[in-house]
Amino acid sequence: MTRILFACVGNSARSQIAEAYCRDLGRDVECASAGSSPAAQVDPNAIAAMKEAGADISSARPKGFKDLPDLKYDYLVTMGCEVGCPFMSGVKVVAWEIPDPHGKDIAEFRSVRDIIRAEVTQLLAKLGTLRTKE
Question: Is residue 134 part of a domain?
Answer without folding.
Answer: no
